[in-house]
Amino acid sequence: MNAAALSADLETAIETDLKVVPFHPMDPETELERLAKAHRLGVAKYDQRIADTRKQMKAEVAMLDADRKAEKLRHDAEMAAIAERIAEARAKADKDIAADRRLSASCSAALDALVRE
Fold first, then answer.
1. Distance separating the N- and C-terminal Cα atoms of the chain
2. Where are the alpha helices (DSSP H) in the chain?
3. What is the pLDDT of residues 75-99, one digit of tens each?
4. Distance CA 117, CA 114 (A)
5. Sign of CA dihedral 42, 47, 51, 57
6. How far is residue 42's CA from residue 64's CA, in Å, rounded to a whole number?
7. How far is C-alpha 108 from the chain's CA centre?
8. Cα 59 to the chain's mean position, in Å?
9. CA dihedral in degrees (47, 52, 56, 59; nearest 10)?
């Protein structure tokens, strides 16, 4: 099959499958109104999306802020418990040191007494 015959077959196939829809040009005022309406709808849609996004952001920030406050309270309570344990450890160490100093002084006194004799 040559190129001319193939081209003619292709044109015939395309012509039988295509429907020609007549284009009716719109009145400029009608077209302007249609475009203006489309843009007004777009502005309203995007303004609503902005409002929805802000509302969602505020809700999310409020939730995160509540989580932060709860975590701070938990942290403060844990830090107070740790501070209490530190104070207890220091008090115990002070008590043990004082007892050991008394025992050391007693041993020193006994040693002095033994050496003097």
1. 138
2. 3-17, 28-116
3. 999 999 999 999 999 999 999 999 9
4. 5
5. positive
6. 32
7. 66
8. 13
9. 100
Buried b (16+ CB within 10 A) or exposed e, 60-82: eeeeeeeeeeeeeeeeeeeeeee
Question: Do the Cβ atoms of 34 and 26 come closer than 8 Å?
Answer: yes
Instruction: Give the torsion sign (CA, 91, 97, 101, 103).
Output: positive
Place of tokens 């995007």: 46
Q: And the tokens for 56? A: 């969602």
3 state SS of 1: coil
> Using one digit for the tens of pLDDT, what is the confidence trace for 24-52?
777 777 888 989 999 999 999 999 999 99
Angstrom distance (rounded) from CA 48 to CA 36: 18
CA distance 45 to 38: 10
- Give me 91's structure tokens: 């008090």
How many Å apart are CA 85 and CA 98, to the nearest integer?
20
What are the E-state strand segments in 1-109? none
